[in-house]
Specification:
single chain; mainly beta; Glucose Permease (Domain IIA); seven-stranded antiparallel sheet; two-stranded antiparallel ribbon; 9 strands; 0% helix; 46% strand; globular; Dup_hybrid_motif; Peptidase M23; Cell_wall_metabolism_enzyme
Length: 112
């Protein structure tokens, strides 16, 4: 159970990568930004990148507004924003999540 959800179980559809506040968050791969800003469903300040072929990655809980905007093409390794703890979060981390054809999938399958 996670404290951010008041002890209730929930499906955790991503990978939490903890580090210090303001640690740079970078794009896992190139693509087009399809979301950048505040997410009302627990992600806080977040970015979503469409990589094509039905693959979208999410980078969540940034301490401030993202450094990229919707429609911008980003490159692999490009700075997206600083790590934080916004939204449903209890400490500085990045929630990294992957959607394939609109379905949450295990992000470890896409990381090398």
């Amino acid at each position: 159970m996670e404290p951010a959800y008041n002890g209730y179980a929930h499906f955790h559809q991503g990978l939490d990568i903890a580090n210090n506040l303001y640690t740079p968050i970078v794009a896992a791969d190139g693509g087009t930004v399809v979301f950048a800003g505040w997410n009302n469903f627990g992600f806080g300040n977040a970015v979503a990148i469409d990589h094509g072929n039905g693959l979208v990655t999410w980078y969540c809980h940034m301490v401030q507004q993202p450094a990229v905007w919707v429609g911008e093409h980003v490159s692999q390794g490009q700075f997206l924003g600083p790590m934080g703890s916004t939204g449903a979060s209890t400490g500085s981390h990045t929630h990294f999540a992957v959607m394939k054809d609109g379905v949450w999938v295990d992000p470890l399958r896409y990381l090398q």
